Queue: 2 jobs
Job 1
Amino acid sequence: MIVAIDGPSGTGKSSTSKAVAAQLGLSYLDTGAQYRAITWWMVNNGIDIDDPTAIAAVAGKPEIVSGTDPGHPTITVDGTDVAGPIRTQEVTSKVSAVSAVPEVRTRITELQRSLATSAEQGIVVEGRDIGTTVLPDADLKIFLTASPEARAARRSGELKGADVHATRAALIKRDAADSSRKASPLAKADDAVEVDTTDLTLAQVIECVVTLVEEKRAAAK
Ligand SMILES: Nc1ncnc2c1ncn2[C@@H]1O[C@H](COP(=O)(O)OP(=O)(O)OP(=O)(O)O)[C@@H](O)[C@H]1O
Ligand SMILES: Nc1ccn([C@H]2C[C@H](O)[C@@H](COP(=O)(O)O)O2)c(=O)n1
């Protein structure tokens, strides 16, 4: 069972995917963390983020390893645990530029496909282009949405004290960059089920996705 969960930032992809995977005994892969990890490496190694040619030239250098246990997801770069550093404002503001470079996407997509095919019990993979490009044959594709207001309120709650208007503007900017890049943009696959989470609690979204997975499993028997 391969489940692809895509959508803009703050729609609940990570929280939902982790919980669904844990509940159903599946592995879990946060592909955004991989793009953040390669961005962290670029920043740490002084690569000019505004120079796609410079990024492309070194895209194959860092070794990125993702742990896929939904109860304890991990991410390392060249053996260093970067779970904390990849969530800084600096990385968040630069990740769209780095992830738009085709050589970066080719590299990370290979990693994602290899992890998905080696997950013996199945896997929930979340990101922006999983249903359209990375795993177009996924058994179930979900596209989560939510209003910018709801997403900004969720993120501001997480980043205690953050201004909700600035948070809303930042996530709209990142979504626009992720949706308009040439290489594998953020998009809903034609055969994805769209779930608008604006007025749903996280528990309701998890229940909805678990039901969709169980229906797929039953239909496959
Ligand atoms: N339905 C919901 N109702 C209320 N809060 C939610 C809901 N879904 C997620 N959240 C909260 O919103 C925040 C963002 O959720 P999450 O990180 O899962 O989103 P995401 O889509 O993975 O975002 P990103 O793509 O930016 O990583 C978290 O604090 C999470 O607990
Ligand atoms: N499949 C993916 C996943 C993520 N990205 C890029 C675009 C996002 O802005 C960034 C960080 O993702 P997040 O941690 O917020 O989920 O990574 C992508 O291009 N493709």
Note: The two ends are 12 Å apart (CA to CA).
Job 2
Amino acid sequence: MSEAQELEQLRNSIDSIDRQIQELINQRARCAQQVAEVKQKYAQPGEVVVFYRPEREAQVLRNVMARNEGPLTNEGMARLFREIMSQCLALEEPLNVAFLGPEGTFTQQAAVKHFGHAVHCHSQVSIADVFREVESGAANFGVVPIENSTEGVVTHTLDSFFDSGLRICGEVSLRIHHHLMVKDKDATVERIFSHAQSLGQCRRWLDKHYPNVERVAVSSNAEAARRASLEPGAAAIAGEVAADLYEMHILNTNIEDRPDNTTRFLIIGKLETLPSGDDKTSIMVSSRNQPGALYQVLEPFHKAGVSLTRIETRPARTGTWNYAFFIDFEGHAADAVIAPVLQGLQDQVADYKLLGSYPKAVL
Ligand SMILES: O=C(O)C(=O)C[C@]1(C(=O)O)C=C[C@@H](O)C=C1
């Protein structure tokens, strides 16, 4: 057989497989439509029907990864199913998602990673605006950054929970790669724009390669790319999406000081997420200002064998030198081991708020 004949044969096979995949995907989509009808049928009068089920989505993606035999990677296969489910959900209910913008930020990338491409993403100017959009019902969900592995916690996001009744419905983990970009690759770089956190994440690289160039902190990486696209002699540190959006030329790729630089984002909404089998819970407690206060808060977790994943301390809004603890731990608030721990805690501390139980990030 000639090369052309062999290729034709294989491409015929691919065409036939594609036809079957397409038919199956549509069969799946019809099932999702029926799921929507059942949800509506059993809703109480006046009840808001919940179509998006994060715990079910996490289970579907985990199942895909567990049974995958390759040659596609587990993550690659899960990403394909992420998109299929995103399209299926859009048939049930098109979701509106507010994210910390502008267009081209890592937060937008996180929103797409979590929900897939079939949701409507709306850019917001500030973290407070993302909370407001979701609280008012203009958006079904919001996406905000919460912590970076190099630079630490995003205090704005944590503090927003003091006054908000919104729940955490999910988390997204995104590997962050920063690139140095310019409009004109022959111009001398006189100024570098980026978000303060990103300048921090690339500090050592900048000290080595651009020690005497002015660093200017702006509101986001995408804004940095936008400014650098307009000002001669300016460069930006931002991600690939922003580089594409503003048609920038990338001078240096992956300039972050730590190769494992990762940012975690939260999905916020009004939804109470059911247990998925592999969950995390976030709470906020503020204890009376007395010796051993934090110990008393943490001891019940230790006794119950619950694994804590993060603790942040923030000044509480009540009284000087009072503190609020933001605690993340493994498990769901409804789990038999966790529920009594949380009940005991509520009786003991001055202030307690369950911020949410949600599936651990799958992708
Ligand atoms: O299982 C459901 O509740 C569905 O609505 C179906 C489905 C899916 O496509 O698998 C779609 C949307 C939900 O977020 C979860 C899963």
Note: The domain at 179-260 is CATH 3.40.190.10 (D-Maltodextrin-Binding Protein; domain 2).
